[in-house]
């Protein structure tokens, strides 16, 4: 009996020793390997990982780590972001590019919105929304953060104090009695990243307002650095004698912002030039459109957008064919991507063949491009196989808007103008789209 008890006690001691040894045993993972693992996590998981130690908090907050994480995310298919807003909230719905299935829904409470709202391009998950006379707000959709309101730009303060009737027009609302409703149309700003410093900047280029007798200086430009948090003017001297086309949202690609020129009233022109702004040097230049664009093409037949990180430019020709090209920076040349026959897509876009389509994204997995049309709720995809001429309905707005809620279009969806009141003519309400990296 004593021997058995002694054996039992030995077993208990040995078991405790082994358990203690297991608790003390650990794996040492090199920091560079750990960084590679963490870099592949979603943003919110990385935010929580900062609580592990002060070392990892300092590593994650470095600009280098952020740049590497963003580069990794860009290797994946982008996401589609649908945006809508009500009187006191703005809502984001993130959908998978391949299946259109809902992945995430975010809703932010905001101050009451008075007037049409605009949405900027999406840049590394940051999105701006604003009104002509209300402060710009910046949302980080990755961390679900709504930043404090920005100070009003000079352009906004000027319009708030001295409204310009030329920026208002009547829109007929379908009701028991048709009544005119003021609809404000204004120039949309560009939003992008300085590729050298990593800073994010808002660039608000607009035609001189109010009207001026200075016939040489046609435009002004205000820049807001999100780190400096103040508006300042930059010179537009290279743009003398040029005005920008109204109702365009300038795309940003590789640290450059792009606009098309218009006539003296900001309407489409057949003498179209390309305005380029370097976000780092804050300098403008005016160039001719690429050689594949018809010399006398009207600016409202030319499309500009950021497509999978590259500048994409297209022209809708008289035969209803639209050719798409993008800029290949590595070899400093333009490359033709695909062509679309508007007669084949018009059945999903209300029979419209006179407005250029906007490509939202190219899926790397199935080699298809997703196309949209301003103010239309449907999306169409097109197989990039050279032998393919088949188009498919990719997505159609499946639900009715909530009462008191309006829909807006974000980033690469490229709506050309401010939000119209519900049921307003001539454009139907629509749901907005955007590209969201990662």
TrEMBL record:
This protein's name: F-box domain-containing protein
UniProt-listed PANTHER family: BNACNNG10540D PROTEIN, F-BOX PROTEIN CPR30-LIKE
Signal sequence range: none
SMART domains (alphabetical): FBOX (SM00256)
NCBIfam families associated with the record: F_box_assoc_1
Origin species: Brassica napus (Rape)
Entry-linked Pfam families: F-box, FBA_1
Region of interest: Disordered: 411-438
InterPro entries for this protein: F-box-assoc_dom_typ1, F-box-assoc_interact_dom, F-box-like_dom_sf, F-box_dom, Gal_Oxase/kelch_b-propeller, SCF_F-box_component
Domain of life: Eukaryota
Domain F-box: 23-70
